[in-house]
Amino acid sequence: MEISDKDLQDLCYAKSLLENVSLAAKICNAIGKPIEKGFELLPSNWSDVVNRATVNALERALDIAVAMMDDRGPRVSSNSFHKLIVTATGAGGGAFGLAGLPVELPVSTTIMLRSIADIARSEGEQIKIPSAKLACIEVFALGGRSKVDDAAEMGYFAVRAALAKAISEAAKHIAEKGASRVGAPAMVRLITQVASRFGMTVSEKAAAQAIPVVGAAGGAIVNLLFIDHFQDMARGHFIVRRMERTYSPEVVKNVYTRL
């Protein structure tokens, strides 16, 4: 099956977003310092702090963000509005460094998921159905290309394949139980898998905010890059899903791979 020229252009754009550089590279370009410097300044228990904050953030976001949206059809997403709010939370969190992460990250992640759901709706998703809700959570596992991903060939479709079973089980649970209770085994498995990848990006954010010259102003910049990064991931992801609704997943994947 051939896809139209317009859809081919959209798919090219989606791939350019999804296979782009990691958040770490964007932060380095913005603050002019290698992010490795920030990792050296983090305390010995920073990994545990990031892991707990990441899981807590995803749990809260899953319960809250999508529930706040209606499903009255596609419309233009409010990217700038969500960037403004997350930038403000970054300024507050950045002033406290790593200590502020457990408080700031759940707030920022909930706002980002609200923005992701907004983008999903703009690409024609019916965001009240379980599969669309979980596709929004899935975006947090799409961190863009990093050195680790290059070595493991963890491109966009590889990440989706790795999450497919967990998402299917979670969608079945939501459909049967009605509410996305994060304590249910199916939801715990999904959050754990997404958190393992989202945590890498959160670690980069934490390291950047640990650099002394960053502070509150830098925290705002880092959060602006943070949400901008995941808005790009969301746009690419939901363009691909829109293509899959028009054609077939196999056709879309084959064309994407050849681009």
Explain this structure to me?
- This protein is 74% helix and 0% strand.
- The protein has 259 residues and is mainly alpha-helical.
- The chain has one domain.
- Helix 6 runs parallel beside helix 11.
- About 2% of the residues have low confidence.
Uncertain residue ranges: 147-152
Overall pLDDT score = 80
Number of domains: 1
The run of helices and strands is HHHHHHHHHHHH
- What's the N-to-C terminus distance? 16 Å
Largest sheet: none
Strand content: under 5%
Shape verdict: globular
**Rg, please?**
18 Å
Q: From the helix content, strand content and strand pairing, which structural class follows?
A: mainly alpha
Number of helices: 12
Helix content: over 70%
Number of strands: 0
How are the secondary structure elements laid out?
Blueprint: H1 5-18, H2 23-31, H3 36-41, H4 46-64, H5 79-94, H6 101-122, H7 130-138, H8 147-152, H9 156-177, H10 185-210, H11 215-246, H12 249-258
Helix pairs in contact: 1-11, 2-10, 2-11, 4-6, 4-10, 5-6, 5-11, 6-7, 6-11, 7-9, 9-10, 10-11, 11-12
